[in-house]
Amino acid sequence: MDLIARLRNWALARPRVLLVDAPGATTFRWSVEAELDRRGWRRAVSPADTDLLVVLGGPGPALAEAVDVLWSQVPEPRHRVDVQRARDVAVALDEGRAALVRRAGSGARGDDRSSPASLLGKNEDEDADDEGMDHGSGHEGMDHGSGHEGMDHGSGHEGMDHGSGHEGMDHGGEVAGLPMASTGPDRDGLELDVLKVALGPVLPGWPTGLVLRADLQGDVLTSAELAWLDAGTAPPAQQQSDSQRAALDRLARFLDVAGWPTAARDARRARDGAAEGANRDEAQRLAEALARRVSRSRTLAWTAGGIGRRGSGGEALDRVRRWCDMASGQSVEDLPAMSLDGVAALVEGAEIGSARLIVASLDLSPVSAVSAPGHVHA
Amino acid sequence: MPEQTLAEVWGLVPAVLGIVAVGLVLGVVVAAVDRVVVLGASRAAVEPIRFGARLLVEQRRTMLAPDRLLWRIGCVAVPTLALLSLAVVPVGGRTLWSTSADLVWFNAMEALLWAAVWLVGWGPNAVHALTGGYRFLAQGLAYELPLMFALITAGLAAGSLRTTDILATQENLWFVVTMPVAFVVFVASAAAFAFWGPFAAPAGPDIAGGVASELSGVDRLLVEAGRAVFLGASAAMAAALFLGGDSGPWLPGPLWHLLKTLAVVAALVWVGRRMPVLRPDRTVEVGWMVLVPLTLLQALVVAVLVLNGFYA
Fold this sequence. Notes:
Chain B: The chain crosses the membrane at residues 12-33, 69-91, 111-130, 142-161, 173-200, 221-243, 255-272, 284-311. The structure holds two protein chains of two kinds. By secondary structure, chain A is of the alpha/beta class.
């Protein structure tokens, strides 16, 4: 093996993985994350950061299309793996890595991929004759296009929705076929740029399949609306048999969003250790230490406090502390599930980072949306 | 009478190459220590090098309607400014070149970083990157004044803005003893302008990587390397300004400076990774209400000591 090939092999020995867990694949995701941690492979936070795209379970039609757009944003060398069953994961990851190295060696530059513009064009056509995909989010034709946002570029893709004429907003001209952001009054009474953005359906620590649509002024979200992709075809409720592991998982995802990687790492370790009989005691100690550290952290209270207050349920920080109790093994009674409209009211007017923390502090799954028809207010 | 600079002793080109090499080594050391602390495994120390090699074989991304020129300028400027700020940090007792206002030079490179990071966020025409750019500017408002006061306190005690003069003044007593606040503020500001650790909001995971969210290949390598070199250069500067640089018994001077730099890096990473990201809107409040008065008070104390001939 020549030196360059060896070097390439070494460089890609630990690829960055972007996980897309189709709704209902939660425990599946845990086993994949445990496998990634064992191998020392890190998780990507955006498509630009990705080498391997790993899709778990069977995404519905709208999520599958969103994943296609996401895939078009991943730079070469790249490889996509679809895994259906937990026991195939190790093999699939090994194959994915080998394919990645081959692809890097062949010098493929991804000329076969469709450009972002063509994908947008396609969406626009589909929007026109595919109203059935809208799932009652109240935006004619909007749903589909912005479902493809993937993890980034609210700006580019969203603009097309204006272009297709569903929104009666003025825009100040076009750039590259996209309308410019328009202006509107902000909370301080100033005229500020308004950008239509969509967050989701795939983001770090974000419930996969959830799409938040809002106006962005500076970094403040207004007129927020939330919807699940493929809400009509959501899988039946997956009963969480192990509430302690579930709490540790939620905690890990929240800590990821809060930018506390060492604590998130410990939460994952405790979650994965709790599954293995041999390390159970050690995992329990780790979980208790982590729960103490997080619930007593003054820095976290200072930086994440005072957001997402929800009636009797307290603010985001209270919900996280509840999870800490659950994570250390105490039994805590369940809070009532929250409707998406209730969540939208919570993130209304929040800074984008606070909105992410609020969503991460709620246990959202498409199942609860189905069980609460008509989006009843909480 | 200014001492000879590295450029005069070694010739300009070897001296510049030497400083670049020192900068890159410092950057790799910072990134390696960071990885080891974050992943909790000592084998993670090679990950930054692997990451760099991976980025070299990766494709550059294009976006829809990017501001390509400004984007590329921003990406190149981050590591360039980091290396330029290292030019006035004493390496082996000498700086690359001496400007009679070294502290101002260091601060200017760091202030130009505002523009560079803003361009990296602005360039790709994407929401998360732009939000990261906004956040960096907000964060800059919080750390810039305290950082300037911290820097000027060291210059005040030495009666000179030249880093080699500041080193010479500390032969008897390290400045950290009389100016602990300035030292802590300087190191924390270094983390803030490298938007790292608790100050990583401009590149936070809550905005999918922020300013770095659309970077891939060489562009990402430049920005990430620049951040690490900035941290390494700031640690070396902190060791020179407050910890006596290369003064110490038994060992040769450069080794002392290296050890002190490594100690600052280790302490910075260990403390910084034990807390979550701080929100820029809240750090601005602390920066102005707490840190500005504190650093001014610190400067006042040092000024009184100078008038009493304490440092003479």
